[in-house]
Amino acid sequence: MTSRPEASADRPRLIPELLLVAALFVLYKLGRLVTAGRAEDALRNAGHLWRVERALALPGEGSIQQLLLHGQAAVHTANAYYAAVHFPATALFLGWLYLRRPRHYRWARRVLALLTAAALALHLAFPLAPPRLLPAARMVDTGQVYGPTVYRASPGADTLANQFAAMPSLHFGWALMLAIGMIAATRTRWRLLWLLHPLLTLVVIVGTANHYWLDALVAAALLSIALAVIAPPPRDRDQRGYGARGPVAGSRLPQRVPTTPTSAAREHGLAAGAAGVRA
User: What is the pTM of this model?
Assistant: First the structure.
């Protein structure tokens, strides 16, 4: 069972909020395009990162891709998940919080904004080609081969997306925040299942050769910092003293009302009378 909807007074005004989110999105897209022409730097950084992952004994990204390539339906589904779930899922997440948990919405929006700003700064400082563009990775560009894809075959001809902004993976960072936000905003016993979304996203972004393992790890680290910096929303009144199965530690329980001398004498008299009747 979920907690009660938060008061509508906590909900920010819709039109300014939509304009703010749209402005942040446009600034992010424009910022990503700044690094679109740095192919040489992006490929050099990709080579360094690939060697670092092998030195750390991380499993090869190709092992995950081989699992997807066992069947065309699996790889096609993974491509579709990468292309079609990222933005709509995040928008639905924020929309639900806006309507049902306004205080959680403000918190989640601030965390996502800080995470995205940090990611943009890293994109500018460290352009990175994904595994599908790195010859040493020897991975298949599943989007181009099996479809669907959100990228053009030639990164230089892609004016709508920056293919050299793999580090960090906002696909994974946003998916992880969605899971954390829904777990924090709901009380159902099944809420931990939201963690399946970032787990599935991790398999998809690696298996489709769009990201390295370290892209996801860095996104998780940046999200941890954002969560530490942004204060969490206050707990609902009905959640402060009781958990799902009773009072929680440190909660205030109803105290016994102290008896006054008059009430104590009355109770003593009643007790004495009852004793006389039994005698």
Answer: 0.79
Please name the residue ranges forming H helices in the chain: 14-33, 39-55, 61-68, 72-84, 86-100, 102-125, 142-146, 170-185, 196-207, 213-229, 237-240, 261-278
239: confidence class by pLDDT, cuts 50, 70, 90: very low
Instruction: Give dist(CA 130, CA 43) in Å, integer.
Output: 9
Tokens of residue 251, six digits: 């909660």
Measured CA distances, 95 to 21, 37, 101, 105 (Å): 11, 35, 10, 8
End-to-end CA distance of the chain, in Å?
A: 55
Please give the structure tokens belonging to residue 119.
């990611």
The predicted structure's pLDDT at residue 159: 57
Cα torsion 132, 135, 139, 145 to 10°: value is: 60
Query: What does the pLDDT look like over 189-209, one tens digit per residue?
Result: 999 999 999 999 999 999 999
DSSP 3: P
Q: Which DSSP category does 138 fall into? A: -
d(CA 121, CA 123): 5
